[in-house]
Amino acid sequence: MKRMGFILVLVLILASLAIAACGGGDEEEAAATATATPETTEAPGETATPSPGAEVELPENVKFTMEYSSSDGASGTYKYWVKGDKWKAEMSGEWEGEEYTQIMIDDGEYAYIYDPASNTAMKYPSQSEAMAGGLAYLAMYEMAFSDYSTEAAIQAACAEEPDCISVRKAGTEVISGHNCNVWEGITTEGTGKVWVAIDTGWPLKFETTYAGETMTMEFKELDLNPSIPDSVFQLPTGVEIMDMTSFFE
Questions:
Q1: I need a surface site. Which of 63, 106, 115, 202 has the fewest CB within 10 A?
Q2: What confidence score (pLDDT) does residue 146 get?
């Protein structure tokens, strides 16, 4: 599978959308001249991420926190809970000097976007495209988690991805107590780095630079197969609900 190479490009796409939403869309995109052959290098004395030879899947229950910050001052925290076909994303942070909190819940039957400040929620069908914003980082983590990539696989992925110019191993670093290999990718849109835990293959940190802006995302408190009560996926009592399901029939 070529997922780790694709994750570099995916992170750049997600970051570019986030930066554009924060007012960076008018800036001139950083363009690079593509070279024909991607290159992969490894620092002396370092070993590539081990490959058990098979993909792994996230368990039914997952809980983790992702913290992000950008060079324009935006910052925040994403908290995720996943239990089978149910999921919840709680997003909070600061943007343009104002704090915000938004909660997305999909209970397997219906999905809700909840605003705690007004105690209101919009109701959608389960798996609605309206929930894409909440699913983006979860999908990114699932994609990267499931691939114990080898150096050869990363290089092959870059060779087949039109936007990828090169991939190289940029060193090692300890993230959240794990020794990580640092992979750096250069695409036509910018640059991206992924910190991959050597002992597990899990991605623990991402950093992207696009149109002069840098965004950093770091995964923390990853809990695999925790006990998650169903109440996590329920709205608080007294919430005013606006039913939007008819727009998706």
A1: 115
A2: 53
Phi then psi dihedrals of residue 5, to 5 deg? -65, -40
Domain 3-23+30-227 grouped into CATH 2.40.160: no
Q: How far is CA 208 from CA 36, 47, 137, 201, 223, in A?
A: 23, 24, 14, 20, 25
Least confident range from 28-42, 217-231, 232-246: namely: 28-42
Tell how far CA 127 is from the center of its chain: 18
Helix (H) or strand (E) holding 62: strand 61-70
**Between 151-160 and 3-19, two packed helices, what is the crossing angle to 10 degrees?**
60
Residue 69, helix vs strand vs coil: strand
By percentage, how much of the chain surpasses pLDDT 90? 24
Q: Which amino acid is at 245?
A: T
- The label of the residue with tokens 């029939």 reads 249
Domain boundary assignment for the chain? 3-23+30-227
pTM for the whole structure: 0.64
Q: At what angle do helices 132-145 and 3-19 cross, to 10 degrees?
A: 150
| CA distances, 6 to each of 56, 99, 125, 167, 185 (Å) | 17, 32, 29, 11, 10
